[in-house]
Amino acid sequence: MNERVLQLNAQIEGERQKLLSHPVYSKINDLQGLQKFTQTHVFAVWDFMSLLKSLQICLTSVSIPWVPVGSASTRYLINEIVLGEESDVDEEGIRMSHFEIYLKAMHQMGSDTTSILSLLTKVQFGIPIHEAIKSSGFSDNVNKFLDFTFSVALHAPAHVKAAVFTFGREDLIPSMFHKLLEQLNAEFPEKVSTFKYYIERHIEVDGDHHSHLAIAMVSELCGDDDAKWEEACVAAKKALEMRYLLWDSIL
Q1: pLDDT for residue 135 is more than 90
Q2: Angle at Cα 45 formed by Cα 41 and Cα 51, nearest 5°?
Q3: CA angle at residue 217 from 216 to 223, to 5 degrees?
Q4: Measured on CA atoms in the order 183, 189, 192, 194, is the torsion positive or negative?
Q5: pLDDT tens across 183-209, in order?
Q6: Are 98 and 85 in contact (CB under 8 A)?
Q7: Distances (CA, A) of 156 to 70, 120, 220
Q8: CB atoms within 10 A of CB 13
Q9: pLDDT in tens, 9-46
């Protein structure tokens, strides 16, 4: 890992630790608590895909006629991440995105998917995203979280999008959450097995291979430009702060 990335990680460490110690985790102590958590966390799983696709649009050619865009190295990095996120496999080996696996897990455990599916319907009918968010009746913190993500996805330069994607959207899950999940899966395997698979798959793919690819992407996009690295750091901190607000809304 290069020195610039180490410096950025050091600068955002305070926000990461604050997120890890958020009191919401201590409140999730049964199946009902997990259901409540997923009903809001699903927004972060969904808008993550829009952030990812915005990077693909920036860094690869998605128009006709095709022309090469940027460096082949960066194209490879983002396309591999998209492949894994958009068309992975569920626990039965069926192709689906991580978001669709998450929805499947919510249905299995009996979580309410009304809010997220209603938002998706509005988007599919062509309602502009910020208008769709505003009209959905979400809490103020959920609105702020989503508005920030889509402002970045729609308007930020590529290096800022990459920084938010890589450093500001880490799903930081403390050890007590894993222990609870093991306990709930032992008690209610017919309710929690898909969510357990999602978490384990997320850690296996996103927390290892994809994270290395994403860090390499940020490094290439920022290069030796001090201003870009500073903008990347500010954006990553802001994204972690927005995630904290999302956890507040669950709490």
Answers
A1: yes
A2: 130
A3: 85
A4: positive
A5: 898 899 999 999 999 988 877 776 667
A6: yes
A7: 17, 23, 17
A8: 10
A9: 999 999 999 998 899 988 888 999 999 999 999 999 99
Whether the bond between 65 and the residue before it is cis, its omega within 30 degrees of 0, is yes
Is the pTM above the cut of 0.90?
yes
Residue 205: DSSP 8-state: I
Give strand pairing partners of 96: 88
Give the whole-angstrom CA distance, residue 147 versus residue 143: 6
Q: Which residues contact residue 112 at a Cβ distance below 8 angstroms, ignoring those fewer than 6 apart? A: 35, 39
Token reading at 60: 């690869």
The 10s digit of each residue's pLDDT in 50-70 is 999 999 999 999 889 999 998
Confidence at 4, pLDDT banded by 50, 70, 90: very high
Query: What is the C-alpha to C-alpha distance for residues 100 and 106, in angstroms, rounded to an integer?
Result: 10
Amino acid symbol at 64: I
* Inter-CA distances, 157 with 32, 63, 115, 116, 172, Å: 40, 19, 30, 27, 25
3-state DSSP call for residue 47?
A: helix
Query: 195, 105 in Cβ contact below 8 A?
Result: yes
In one letter, which amino acid is 204? E
What separation, in Å, do the N-terminal and C-terminal C-alpha atoms of the chain show? 36
pLDDT greater than 80 at residue 111: yes
Judged by phi (left if over 0) then psi (alpha if -120 to 50, else beta), residue 152 lies in alpha
